[in-house]
Design brief:
25% helix, Rossmann fold, alpha/beta
Length: 144
């Protein structure tokens, strides 16, 4: 089990918190669920994860809101970035392809992952980002 709490006072701090978190992961074949209101900083946290994995264009990462999933390959790591905001329900067909994506040998980052229940044997981290005020965020990270 892993539990940590952070306070971020800027976008740069949110990216740094994510970068430190990702650099300390022993196994990168995991799932990271990102939850928080619109504008909380889920995509900025994702940029920090990509930075930690030496993805050169980490600042260009955007949320795959309309595509639902973007897949990237770094020198050493496959990364799946999913955004489930637009999905209201997952049918059996969706469940099959989503599970295929998250169960492959990769790091999966899932924004709005708390909307659905996933069955996986992979190590899972839950990042909850709370808006404290315009610039401050409370970031809680836990694992299964």
């Amino acid at each position: 089990m892993f539990n940590a709490n952070y306070h971020s006072h800027s976008v740069d701090e949110t990216i740094l918190i994510a970068e430190i978190f990702a650099r300390n992961l022993k196994d990168k074949d995991v799932i990271i669920f990102l939850n928080g209101e619109l504008g909380a900083g889920k995509t900025h946290f994702t940029k920090g994860l990509f930075k930690a994995l030496d993805f050169q264009d980490y600042l260009q990462i955007t949320s795959p809101t309309f595509d639902i999933v973007n897949t990237y390959q770094t020198k050493n790591q496959k990364i799946n970035h999913l955004d489930l905001y637009r999905l209201d329900a997952i049918n059996q067909e969706d469940e099959i392809w989503l599970n295929e994506i998250i169960d492959d040998n990769s790091l999966s980052i899932i924004e709005w992952g708390n909307k659905f229940e996933f069955k996986t044997k992979k190590k899972t981290y839950f990042v909850n980002i709370f808006i404290e005020n315009e610039n401050e965020r409370r970031i809680e990270i836990s694992s299964n």
